[in-house]
Amino acid sequence: MAQPAERAYYRFVVLFFNCLLTFGSYFCFDIPSVLQDQFQGNLTCPNTTVINGTVDCVLGLGMSPQQYNLLYAIYAWTNAVVVILAGFLIDKLGNRFGVFLFSFLCVVGSSVFALGSHFKGTPYLLPLMLSGRLLFGSGNGSLTIVQNRITAFWFKGKELALAFGLTLAFSRLGSVLNFFLTQRFEERFGMEWTLWGGALLCLLGFVSAVIVSVLDKAGMKQLGLDGAIQEESRKVRVQDVKLLSLRYWLLVLTIMFFYNGIFPFIADASKFIQDKYSDYSQKEAAYIAGAVYDSSLVLSASVGILIDYVGLRGVFALACAILTLPVFGLLAFTFVPPLVSTLWLGVTYSFAAASMWPSIPLVVPQATLGTAMGLATSIQMIGIGISNLVVGQILGTKSSETKIPVWRWQRMMIFMLANTISCIVVSVLLNIVDHRQGGTLNKTTKRSAAPAADGPTDREPLMEGEEERDEDQPNATRQ
Question: Does residue 51 sit in helix, strand or coil?
């Protein structure tokens, strides 16, 4: 009789709690974006007036644009350093070690960040908030690696892109709710309690970590794979990085350049919309900026199903980069309603996330997947961190009650365009190399379909040696 872990429902139960791991942390990540006016607002507003329904002075923490962007940059830089070690440790010590440690760091980091808001007007504000983002970044980026590793383990050869899409959808649900609810919550309860609410949601991720650990451990024992995977993990060495293929590195650069145009834009999108399009309030601007995540939330699952069925992951990656070019062009040089651009960007982002990240398990061995994901996340975050710093310099280093000039925003969009063009160039090279090495990324359903049922169970072998039995096995790892 088949064990529960061999049934489809079991892996989807694992997936549900796995998705909840990052729901709260993604909510927390972009709270500064929604409350950018408050973060950069004045410490006092003695002579506030209202002009055409708009308050000319916003009470806040008194950060400069450069200091505000530093909150995102330090998150990215921390990720860049920590996730490399985290990925290796996860490969060596297992998923359960990772989910406990990194979900706990998210809780501590978000709590320190919230604590820092109580010290506005003092020298302790920025150090505390940066320390909180540092700890939060150490946990959240690494937690995503564990999350992806668990997803790849349970869905490799099955509904892999769908599973990655659902994971992204849950994460983006946190982001979407942030853009819809945070502004209202802040108006009613103040910034301090808003940030503490985000920390409470990170605690939900820690509870989910406990549950997914229990399910993962029980499931691997039922499948008889626990001992085998531990044996493979003991063989993982730092030197294995040298064995990662050119295809992997091109894929990582494609991800980096694409995300360089997404996250730094979203971090400043609310302020951009208010400055360039004067008809929008802070709340309306936050809704429009959050439309990137709205599209991703709605489309992620269906896009995952489509890519699972069609394949052509490399082609989709290239198409996403090409179709993203007009977004920043419209924002830079036209006054087309910004909602058009953010919805458009959300669509290309959905396809990119569902095609790029699930491609990594296809080009690296299972035993080194955590290390590979860690390196990919590190390089991605290095790029995003540099982009945040560049954007901060472009937008200015001094706090001011006046709007940031449109020409500065235009330069920022041109910088986003440059990253997108770089993504196109690298993704073209990725498709060429993939074609020369067997076309694993661009296999269609007909070419990669597996002989479905070799046995009564709903799983296929996870270990690399078992997968190499058949050259046409779906999603088989090839160097």
Answer: strand
